[in-house]
Amino acid sequence: MANYRRDRINDEMMKEMNVIMRNVKDPRVSDNFVSVTGVEVSGDLKYAKVWYSSLTGDDKEIRKGLRAATGFIRSCLARSLNLRVTPELTFARDQSIEHGAKIAGILSHMTFTEDTEGGENAEETADGTKKEREDGADA
Q1: Mode of pairing for the β-strands spanning 122-124 and 130-132
Q2: Domain segments of the chain: what residues?
Q3: Do residues 78 and 86 make contact, with C-beta atoms less than 8 angstroms apart?
Q4: pTM of the predicted protein model
Q5: pLDDT by residue (tens digit) across 105-127?
Q6: What fold does the segment set 3-97 form as a domain?
């Protein structure tokens, strides 16, 4: 199967699953504001790995809730997507949002000083003075 078709299916499944997540009645999922951040289907479309994120809640409880709601989620996907086979779903936590927030927190505590003696095209000479490079290339 062409990769562009699989990419379209991944995108469409992600959109549909975000809508479906709002309709899941399990409090382990609905109370923790779970959102789907990515979907990757296998080449034969029989399996799909679903990445989710949640800023609140215990990961183990959320995963249990998602596993319990898998049948409901698959039946909703079968109704909304025009696929011959509805993929088996596995869930994995996407930690990129937490990782990005951690990096942003670190960067917000750092102080940056601006070099006022020459810009990007300045290079330091042997005697310690800065001189502008004519070609603009990096050293």
Answers
A1: antiparallel
A2: 3-97
A3: yes
A4: 0.68
A5: 888 888 766 655 555 555 555 55
A6: GMP Synthetase; Chain A, domain 3 (3.30.300)
Q: What is the mean pLDDT of residues 15-31?
A: 91
Q: Would you call 89 exposed, middle or buried from its count of C-beta atoms within 10 A (0-12, 13-18, 19+)?
A: buried
The answer to whether 113 and 70 are in contact (CB under 8 A) is no
**Sign of CA pseudo-dihedral 39, 91, 58, 95:** negative
Collapse the DSSP code of 126 into the 3-class scheme (helix H, G, I; strand E, B; otherwise coil) and give the result. Answer: coil
Tokens at residue 121, please? 């095209």
For the CA atoms of 10, 16, 19, 21, what is the dihedral angle to 10 degrees? -60
pLDDT in tens, 51-94: 999 878 788 999 999 999 999 999 999 999 988 999 999 999 98
Spatial distance between the Cα atoms of 46 and 44, rounded to a whole number of angstroms = 6
- Read off the tokens for 3: 């990769």
∠ CA(71), CA(47), CA(64), 5° rounding?
A: 45
